[in-house]
């Protein structure tokens, strides 16, 4: 399998991309020197708040958009110089359903194979293989409109795999799936990368998903990679434990911040809604002191927890906001495509 000479399946080097925002407004710098690389046969996670530049990065790497400057390669192929070759090396699974609901599962797969230049015979054989693998063989001849959400999603991934790509782009593969379907999808993604040495670029709104699947992660903010490493490395870089104090009322936040300041030793103190988060060494010993101080001041605490650093803490430390708060219920992207409109 031809990867780039240095074994990197994906390279994004100093990517810059600006979008026109319409007449009279300055262009928006969506990517500002974004850089990362991914080894062959691994799952690489891209995390970041809405608007950080993840989709723009994926669009450039998958030839759907062009960078203003910088280099992007997929399996050693420069995507700007050889988009056709790059396209045959990648599979792209969009957030939106790509299969035709009126066609059967097998019809969708065979059509996808034919669009990639496969003969009908080869496409049928590959479709059969994938239907088996995704436990969809029993539903192969049913219209996709009769499938559950999990089945339709698996079919979409199978469509992306028809032409045996070296690199698969998965944009929020489990958004909207129930826990069982999500677990099944995770197992399949793990299997693909392990057994077939397939490289997967995963963008996700679920930290748990990134933690479980990605061997390396990049956190993207304002068009740049702000930190990168294995989930374990990123977590171990954070010193101390995470303390979260939830209050019954937001009006006492200032009092809590003052108490923490007085007690000393608390770092990265952030107030969010009715909660205060902070880091402290020896959280187990520090928490009772905080609770005693707040009790003495008559501040009513709804809950208080202390935990080892999580990926959410990594995210918070690098972006200044918690992943859960940013992504609560927000994945729909309703902006108008100004770039296309301006073209
Ligand atoms: N076609 C476009 N025209 C104009 N602005 C755009 C276009 N596409 C993206 N943007 C802007 O570029 C920035 C980066 O967007 P991008 O979609 O890459 O972020 P993202 O990290 O994928 O966010 P999300 O999680 O919301 O999908 C945002 O400010 C966005 O509004």
From TrEMBL:
Pfam families, sorted: ABC_tran, DrrA1-3_C
GO molecular function, one term: ATP binding
Sorted UniProt keywords: ATP-binding, Nucleotide-binding, Transport
Statement: the UniProt record of this protein carries the keyword Lipoprotein: no
Superkingdom of the source species: Bacteria
Alphabetized InterPro entries for the sequence: AAA+_ATPase (IPR003593), ABC_transporter-like_ATP-bd (IPR003439), ABC_transporter-like_CS (IPR017871), DrrA1/2-like_C (IPR025302), P-loop_NTPase (IPR027417)
Residue intervals of the ABC transporter domain: 10-247
PROSITE patterns recorded: ABC_TRANSPORTER_1 (PS00211), ABC_TRANSPORTER_2 (PS50893)
SMART domains with a match to the protein in the record: AAA (SM00382)
Cited SUPFAM superfamilies: P-loop containing nucleoside triphosphate hydrolases (SSF52540)
Protein name (record): ATP-binding cassette domain-containing protein
Record lineage: Bacteria, Bacillati, Actinomycetota, Actinomycetes, Micrococcales
């Amino acid at each position: 399998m031809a990867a780039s000479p240095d074994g990197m399946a994906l390279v994004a080097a100093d990517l810059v991309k600006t979008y026109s925002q319409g007449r009279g407004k300055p262009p928006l710098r969506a990517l500002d020197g974004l850089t990362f690389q991914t080894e062959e046969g691994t799952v690489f996670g891209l995390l970041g708040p809405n608007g950080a530049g993840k989709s723009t990065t994926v669009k450039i790497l998958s030839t759907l958009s062009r960078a203003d400057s910088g280099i992007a390669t997929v399996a050693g192929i420069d995507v700007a110089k050889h988009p056709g070759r790059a396209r045959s090396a990648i599979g792209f699974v969009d957030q939106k359903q790509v299969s035709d609901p009126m066609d059967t599962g097998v019809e969708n797969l065979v059509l996808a194979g034919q669009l990639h230049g496969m003969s009908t015979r080869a496409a049928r054989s590959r479709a059969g293989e994938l239907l088996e693998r995704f436990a969809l063989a029993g539903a192969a001849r049913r219209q996709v409109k009769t499938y559950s959400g999990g089945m339709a999603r698996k079919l979409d991934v199978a469509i992306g795999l028809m032409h045996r790509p070296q690199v698969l782009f998965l944009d929020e593969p489990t958004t909207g799936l129930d826990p069982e379907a999500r677990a099944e999808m995770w197992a399949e993604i793990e299997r693909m990368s392990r057994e077939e040495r397939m490289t997967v670029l995963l963008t996700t709104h679920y930290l748990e998903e990134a933690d479980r699947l990605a061997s390396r992660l990049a956190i993207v903010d304002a068009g740049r990679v702000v930190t990168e490493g294995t989930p374990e490395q990123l977590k171990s870089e954070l010193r101390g434990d995470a303390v979260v104090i939830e209050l019954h009322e937001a009006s006492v936040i200032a009092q809590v911040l003052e108490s923490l300041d007085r007690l000393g030793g608390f770092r990265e103190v952030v107030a969010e809604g009715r909660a205060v988060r902070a880091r402290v060494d020896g959280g187990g010993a520090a928490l009772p002191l905080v609770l005693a101080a707040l009790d003495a001041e008559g501040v009513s605490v709804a809950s208080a927890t202390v935990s080892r650093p999580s990926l959410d803490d990594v995210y918070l430390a690098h972006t200044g906001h918690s992943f859960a708060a940013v992504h609560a219920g927000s994945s729909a992207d309703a902006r108008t495509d100004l770039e296309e409109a301006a073209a």
